[in-house]
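User: Teach me something about this protein's shape.
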Amino acid sequence: MLELSFAQKQAVGLQYVLDLLAPCTPFGAALIKKLHPCAPRERAKLELELDDLARVTEVWQEQQKSIAAVQHAMMHMKDVTRSVKKCASHSLGEVELFELKNFLIHLARLTPPLSELAEAAQLTGYSVDDCEEALDLLDPEGARVATFHISELYSDRLREIRREKKLVDEEMRRTGGVQGDALAIRRANVIAEEEREETAVRNRLSAELRPFLDTLLHNIEVIARLDLLLQKAALAVRHGAVRPRLTDGEVAFRNVVNPQVQALLVSQGKHFTPVSIRLERGATVLTGANMGGKSVALKTVTLNIVLVQMGFFAFAEEAAVPLFDSIGMVSEDLQSVEQGLSTFGAEVVRLKELLRAVRQGFAFLALDEFARGTNPEEGAIIVRAVVEYLNTQNCVAFLTTHYDDVAELARAHYQVAGLKGLDPERLRAEMAAAGGDDFAPIARHMDYSLHPVGPDEGCPREALNICRLLALDEEIIELIEKSY
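Assistant: First, the predicted structure itself:
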């Protein structure tokens, strides 16, 4: 599957969302690193994941006690995967046996609250198998405390050796070293014998644990999925995310947001304008003035499509998303530029990769101001050709552009509202009060909402308005007006 590059994942806000997750276990953390969009053939699996997520979010508040108990038990689990796999063919050391015992203790503590949560949320596939027998092997005293030593309960011979070592130690203290060499040699021999017997005990324990290894690995896999499920649910509840409807081809969002951009704007005392849009097969074009939010809208849609295919809820009020074989994006590719390609050359190379993916399956393509790196006349011709071609392909394509006559070829045309309907005199007065050159009043009044418009609706001509508002020299303004 063609996916976004690492830089693009960061740019659209995917890495930001993943960093919001706080897994309790190393198993959950490892699973998060392996997350990838589900392919169309995995639709049934994804539906089940979304169903489980929906059921957990529904009982999230009423099950806080059991969820907290589950997560508390998981927080104490170290990654014993390597030790479990090693035990299949080698004996474990004392530290490894200690960590395994600690894992089993917290596994036992996890089971009751997990059963309560699973019953309340009607979860299937999240139950852990009983490992009490394995724990008994590592805890012969039955104390169920997170310590481990080679107990004398494992071996009568070990008890005898340690008794002899104790007698030797007492003799050495009593004589004050008068028989030093003889006692030291005797003690060294006893210690060597103790080590041999402890090794024999560890060998036997490792062998007795082997019948439980598959069960342990199964439980680790369940805990990883459970950890991720609870993190996804916490994220969904915290942000009011919704369960998406999986479709056969159409993308639709109502009031979808980008958490990364939203958090940034909130920190600046600003507001994120949610995006509402419907994308059919073929190319949908979004036009609008520069700084009008086109790129943010494209990244917001792309982010939420990827998240849905990863089994997350969408950051929206409503969401409908199909499963794509490939998800690709053409945006500023600094890596390719550094390798010697021009911006436009880098875009063409990336587009070729995307088109290969389109020919191999159902694809989502996001093209942000494609061909911006060439002259406007050629750029417009190229983008129109790309739109016309994508309309014939098995894909959903979303393009932002400021070129004229592109939208008339698209399946649908959206436009950023921008400064439409705004009283310029009122805005000019605000800017004058702010000092004249302050851009903040313009940004404050910019309407970033998207509206469907006709195919013949031209690109907004707001650059001239902004020049006027910023009081560019009147002679230049007059020259600009002559060319309109």
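Now, about its shape. The mean pLDDT is 90. Strands lie at 245-247, 251-256, 275-279, 282-287, 318-322, 326-330, 363-368, 395-401, 412-418, 447-453. If you'd like, I can walk through any region in more detail.
User: That's plenty for now, thanks!
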